[in-house]
Specification:
Helices cover 28% and strands 30% of the residues. With 171 residues, the protein is of the alpha+beta class.
Length: 171
């Protein structure tokens, strides 16, 4: 039986702990825990249910037909940029990575070689428009951030002519 996830105001959430575990172990879907613990609601180091999913995670699960959405209708991707992000997310997820939000390191995504509870992220992913010139100063900045946090920068671009994602790493 497919898990039933709740959609409210465009946000999809998982409220059952068994479903969170199933999504993480069977589908490499991490999401973001946002709830407080009943025994200690004022702490902010560890969060509990519900688990909120990135739109990319939700769209992938719907495409794979492994979940049901209750509540509001989930409509994503909505823009061309969303479509590019989804193609990139599917490509990275399809390569076996755990993929989470990368905003705290200035990227689109963070890549983990295994479950983020056991591994540190290895790459910061940046989505670059196909044919866009990246200035040397920006490359240096991206490289310095990665050096400071011990990660590799992955510059990714979707080629509309070949319908493929191209990746280049900066060390």
């Amino acid at each position: 039986m497919k898990p039933k996830l709740r959609c409210a105001s465009g946000q999809v959430m998982v409220t059952c702990a068994d479903d969170v575990l199933w999504l993480r172990t069977k589908h490499r879907i991490v999401g973001s825990l946002e709830g407080s613990h009943p025994a200690n609601p004022l702490q902010n180091n560890y969060f509990g249910l519900p688990l909120f999913l990135m739109p990319e995670e939700t769209a992938l699960l719907i495409e794979c037909d492994v979940i049901c959405i209750e509540g509001d209708k989930f409509e994503w991707p909505q823009s061309e940029r969303d479509q590019l992000r989804f193609k990139l997310f599917k490509d990275l997820h399809g390569r076996g990575f755990f993929v989470t939000q990368g905003i705290k390191f200035g990227g689109e995504y963070l890549l983990y070689p295994g479950d983020p509870l056991r591994y540190h992220s290895s790459h910061i992913v940046s989505l670059v428009d196909h044919g866009q010139t990246v200035a040397a100063r920006e490359l240096i900045t991206l490289g310095r951030v990665c050096t400071a946090v011990n990660k590799t920068r992955l510059l990714s671009s979707w080629n509309p002519h070949t319908d493929h994602i191209t990746h280049i790493t900066l060390n």
